[in-house]
Design brief:
Helix content: 25-40%
Number of helices: 5
Largest sheet: 7 strands, mixed
Order of helices and strands: HEHEEEEHEHEH
Shape: globular
Amino acid sequence: MSTDDACEFTPPAAAVACELPSATPTAGAWASPSQQERFALLRRSRSIAIVGASSNPARASYFVGTYLLSSSPYDVYFVNPMADEILGQPAYRSLADLPVVPDIVDVFRKHDDLPGVAQEAVDAGAKALWLQLGSWNEEAAAIAESAGLSVVMDRCIKIEHARFHGGLHLAGFDTGVISAKRQLLAR
């Protein structure tokens, strides 16, 4: 068996079957914003609405919400029609119920719900739609972009913020560096 095969025990014709599913599509499809564009988006934003936020500490949205509340300059709003409160903050039934227009709508919802959430973000007047790791939906991206929203897909807003502000190594891992230098968080 050659080293060119994707899987050690699979014939070359079936090698694709062994590849891990990818959230990102092939070339020619929607293009993700560059690192500089993502940094600029985070820097100019003031508020983030987390759609699909959970009060369950085992959920990624809970962890991201905890981080954003404690380690970022953003006003954070939680959207979950089944919750009254998340992390001591009120939970809203929909984006339309928020007391402000969010700059970024960060989405933790299943794939089939993403176009509807994108339309809700457009209707609410948001400036950006951010789909978390593993979330990629070109229909949602088209809805948002056609209304002038910036779109980020398959990226974790917590990882991106921490990486841009010295909390993570470029690969997304804790560097283990301990420093007495105070980190300035620019809005």
